[in-house]
Amino acid sequence: QVQLVESGGGVVQAGGSLRLSCAASGSIFRINVMGWYRQAPGKQRELVATITNIGNTGYANSVKGRFTIARDNAKNTVYLQMNSLKPEDTAVYYCNAALVGSSEDYWGQGTQVIVSS
User: Fold this and answer.
1) Average pLDDT over all residues of the chain
2) pLDDT at 9 over 90
3) Model confidence at 104, in pLDDT bands (50, 70, 90)?
4) Are 26 and 44 within 8 A, CB to CB?
5) Distances from the Cα of 95 to the Cαs of 14, 66, 67, 110, in angstroms?
6) Residues near 20 by Cβ (< 8 Å), separated by ≥ 6?
7) Cα–Cα distance between 88 and 6 in angstroms, integer?
8) Per-residue pLDDT at 75
């Protein structure tokens, strides 16, 4: 079992920045890939960014150059630095952890990000 707790969401004006955090606990040694997803009202959940346990990263085209995912293994925490925010970035952001050699994955409870124009 892995538990994920997100924090750092809030309301920001367009062009502003926020940093989301996702603290993992439990069977963290089994985690391979961690990622951030988001779901806007009326839309499907979509991938935002991922990072592997060796630091390889991937981003959705819509956030490349604006968002940065980072992982602090000592703190069992993954961060999402979001710069140059746009109203279309408004969504609930979820942290995800995928386990090594398994189809299991875990989700956090989500944190709301609202970008006002």
Assistant:
1) 95
2) yes
3) confident
4) no
5) 23, 18, 15, 7
6) 6, 7, 8, 9, 36, 79, 80, 82, 93, 95, 111, 113
7) 20
8) 92
- Secondary structure (3-state) at 58: strand
CB 93 within 8 A of CB 79: no
CA distance 79 to 70: 5
Handedness of CA 10, 15, 16, 22 (dihedral sign): positive
Structure tokens at 17: 């920045």
How do beta strands 57-59 and 31-39 pair? unpaired
Q: Which of 62, 79, 68, 85 is nearest to 16 (CA)?
A: 85
Each residue of 23-69: pLDDT tens digit? 999 988 888 999 999 999 999 999 999 999 899 999 999 999 999 99
8 in Cβ contact with 95 (< 8 Å): no
Beta strand 111-116 pairing with 10-13: parallel
In Å, what is the CA distance from 71 to each residue of 22, 23, 115?
Answer: 9, 10, 24
